[in-house]
Amino acid sequence: MDLMINGVTHSVEAEADTPLLWVIRDVLGMTGTKYGCGVAQCGACTVLVDGQAMRSCVTPAESVVGLPITTIEAVEQDPVGRRVVEAWVASQVPQCGYCQSGQVMAATALLQQTPKPTDDDIAGAMTNLCRCGTYNAIAAAVRQAAAQG
């Protein structure tokens, strides 16, 4: 199957129901997208599919054929993604950092769809889990990235 990931079409050999996460990590070697829970609860595996935040651990690869997929490796190619990463760094959001690629992807999707989000918008969109509890710093970074837009 052909998958368009980060602007490049990749022909991959995988079963149709193989989770997109495993195609990204194991077949293509892009390890920025993390495995967390495997049941779409934590969000460590979040990627953008046609601009929408999607949990790649439960997304069959075949279901996204023909759709543009963005991973953390290419998020800064988008101006919104670049602002989010800059805000993350400036706010020193990560502690352990494991969930942060998924957090950045979710924040990027939010700001692409809602450039000036309210605190309720941020709370509603930023549902990824962070075991270190950096939620206040995450929300602050999202607000900072929105203000720079």
Automatic annotation (TrEMBL):
Protein name (Swiss-Prot/TrEMBL)? (2Fe-2S)-binding protein
Protein species of origin: Roseomonas marmotae
Q: Which InterPro entries match?
A: 2Fe-2S-bd, 2Fe-2S-bd_dom_sf, 2Fe-2S_ferredoxin-like_sf, 2Fe-2S_ferredoxin-type, 2Fe2S_fd_BS, Beta-grasp_dom_sf, Diverse_Oxidoreductases
Which residue numbers delimit the 2Fe-2S ferredoxin-type domain? 1-75
The protein's UniProt keywords, in alphabetical order, are: 2Fe-2S, Iron, Iron-sulfur, Metal-binding, Oxidoreductase
